[in-house]
Amino acid sequence: MGIISRGFSGRSREHNPALPPGQYLTEDFPVLSAGPTPDVDTAEWEFSIRTESGAVHKWDWEQLQALPIEEVGTHIHCVTRWSKLGTSWRGVSLDTLFAEVETSNDYVMAHSYGGYTTNVPLEDLLDGKAWIAFEFDGEPLEAEHGGPARLLIPHLYFWKSAKWIRGLVMQSDDEPGFWEQNGYHLYGDPWLEQRYW
After folding, report:
1. What is the SS3 assignment for 133?
2. Which of 174, 185, 189 is nearest to 105 (CA)?
3. Which of 54, 63, 67, 123 has an alpha carbon 20 to 30 Å from 151's alpha carbon atom?
4. What's the N-to-C CA distance of the chain in angstroms?
5. Residue-wise burial string across 81-99, b where 16 or more C-beta atoms lie within 10 A, e elsewhere
6. Is the C-alpha dihedral spanning 156, 162, 165, 166 positive or negative?
7. Where is this region: Disordered (predicted)?
8. CA 89, CA 102: separation in Å to the nearest integer?
9. Alpha-carbon dihedral of residues 16, 193, 31, 67, nearest 10 degrees?
10. For 22-36, 89-103, 146-160, 168-182, which range has the lowest pLDDT when averaged over its residues?
11. Where does the pLDDT of residue 3 fall: very low under 50, low under 70, confident under 90, or very high at 90 and above?
12. Domains of the chain (ranges plus CATH)?
């Protein structure tokens, strides 16, 4: 008959209901990127949304800053198993940016300076679920964390929150982006542990 010690129960979710399965808490903000960090000057930065009709909606840095800015308090979860709770961001809601965009497509490919891409269903960008974030913890977003601006979709694994965001292209199909082509899950829900195919 075996003896089970209460001290040897494996790594738990630390009894925190905000922590998805398989994740551990970190106080740090780990830096993980698919390539080198691009140097993007706000004077040259531009964000666009391109629809299936060829219409392009564009904002430069000053135009983005002139839009309604929201404070976002949220948890973030990386596919590499770390979670950071209670993070603080500032940015522009995708609801604001899509207000004048007409599309019948259901999917988006996010494109970053540096060439990174990731796919997202349009419904995951709207209704207060996603932002173009440019501040973290009261400071301008550092380049290593995606500054000057990144996509922020906190309800999905963090690889979906594309760093150095430069645009969204509407798509009729859910075509895979960079990490999705390399084995990551097409959607990436941390609560369902949708890490890989």
Report:
1. strand
2. 174
3. 54
4. 40
5. ebbbeebebbbbbbbbbbe
6. negative
7. 1-24
8. 28
9. -90
10. 22-36
11. very low
12. 45-53+62-192 (3.90.420.10)
Residue length, the chain? 197
Place of tokens 């903000």: 29
Alpha carbon 181 to its chain centroid, in Å, reads: 17
Q: How many CB atoms lie within 10 A of CB 150?
A: 24
The first and second tokens of residue 163, run together, are 């760093």
What distances in angstroms separate CA 113 from CA 13, 55, 109, 141, 152, one per listed residue? 35, 21, 13, 15, 16
- The string of pLDDT tens digits covering residues 5-55 is 333 333 444 579 999 999 999 988 878 766 788 999 999 999 999 999 999
Backbone angles phi, psi at 38, to 5 degrees: -70, 150
Percent of the chain with pLDDT strictly greater than 90: 86
Task: At 190, list the tokens.
Answer: 């941390």
Residue 183, Cβ density class (10 Å: 0-12 exposed, 13-18 middle, ≥19 buried): exposed
Amino acid at 139: E
pLDDT per residue over 111-146, tens digit each? 999 999 999 999 999 999 999 999 999 999 999 999
The helix (run of H) or strand (run of E) holding residue 117 is strand 117-121
